[in-house]
């Protein structure tokens, strides 16, 4: 990639902080967004000292509409920003049987609304310029909603579908769009106690995950699954999905339902 300025959300630690580090080492300037201003400032100072890139920090809680609106305005108005990494998100809602409705709403606001509105804020500029990059961090749970909790995989399935649609619309206009689907990654979203109960071969270090995601971007992938050994398996999944399309919307109900055709 040629030099860009990337805005990275959820940048104070974990996946977002490693993205900031790797993008800085590629020579890209940064705008880092997260709630923790102190951690952002510490990261920004280190990256500037080590790489010389310009690093701006913005403290914002993207689950709050007023903070989200500030970042949207920055993406619309700051022509220097040509890259967006939508990384901010939360999980750990627990069982739907005893879920906190306010927590679920906050998860949807951050995982879905923020990703949608930030992408929509920058997309017109990028499309008009015929260049730029949007990276959306989703999750392998988007492909296996029955293997986790109820709401988190649903939000990540939205991000995956949203990214595919963005690529279909923006790709022909010169904008690079990528969805990254990490598996279990050693970040603060997982407690050490929980990680200790999981097989070690299922847990990836965050540095390796981000390095693989950036390699996928370099390869021109729209969908990057860092742990998947052979993307032919995903290609076959997409082909099977596409094979359904001719029969998903027809004038009459399928015979198995025994519904008489309307006269």
Brief overview:
The protein is an alpha/beta fold and 263 residues long.
* Arrangement of strands in the largest sheet: 3-2-1-4-5-6-9
Order of helices and strands: EHEHEHEHEHEEHEHEH
CATH topology: Rossmann fold
- Determine Rg (CA atoms, Å): 20 Å
Distance between the termini: 59 Å
CATH-level-2 architecture: 3-Layer(aba) Sandwich
The CATH class is: Alpha Beta
Q: On the 0-100 scale, what is the average pLDDT?
A: 94
Task: Describe the global form.
Answer: globular
Percent of residues in helices comes to 40-55%
* Helix/strand/pairing category: alpha/beta
Largest sheet: 7 strands, parallel
CATH H-level superfamily: NAD(P)-binding Rossmann-like Domain
How many H/I helices? 8
Instruction: Please state roughly what percent of the residues sit in beta strands, choosing from under 5%, 5-15%, 15-25%, 25-35%, 35-45% or over 45%.
Output: 5-15%
How many structural domains does the protein architecture include? 1
Number of strands: 9
């Amino acid at each position: 990639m040629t030099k860009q300025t990337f805005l990275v959300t959820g940048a104070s630690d974990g996946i977002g902080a490693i993205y900031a580090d790797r993008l800085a080492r590629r020579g890209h300037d940064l705008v880092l967004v997260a709630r923790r201003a102190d951690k952002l400032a510490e990261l920004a100072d280190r990256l500037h000292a080590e790489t010389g890139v310009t690093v701006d920090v913005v403290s914002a809680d993207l689950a709050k509409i007023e903070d989200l609106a500030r970042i949207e305005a920055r993406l619309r108005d700051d022509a220097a920003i040509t890259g967006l990494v939508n990384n901010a998100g939360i999980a750990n809602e627990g069982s739907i049987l005893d879920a906190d409705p306010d927590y679920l709403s906050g998860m949807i606001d951050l995982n879905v609304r923020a990703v949608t509105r930030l992408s929509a804020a920058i997309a017109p500029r990028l499309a008009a310029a015929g260049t730029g990059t949007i990276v959306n961090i989703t999750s392998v749970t988007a492909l296996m909603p029955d293997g986790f909790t109820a709401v988190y995989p649903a939000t990540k399935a939205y991000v995956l579908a949203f990214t595919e649609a963005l690529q279909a619309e923006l790709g022909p206009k010169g904008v690079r769009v990528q969805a990254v689907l990490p598996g279990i990654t050693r970040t603060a979203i997982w407690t050490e106690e929980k990680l200790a109960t999981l097989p070690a071969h299922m847990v990836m270090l965050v540095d390796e995950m981000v390095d693989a995601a950036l390699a996928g971007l370099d390869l021109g992938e729209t969908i990057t699954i860092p742990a998947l050994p052979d993307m032919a398996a995903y290609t076959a999944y997409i082909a099977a999905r596409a094979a359904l399309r001719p029969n998903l919307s027809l004038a009459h109900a399928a015979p198995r339902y025994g519904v008489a055709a309307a006269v």
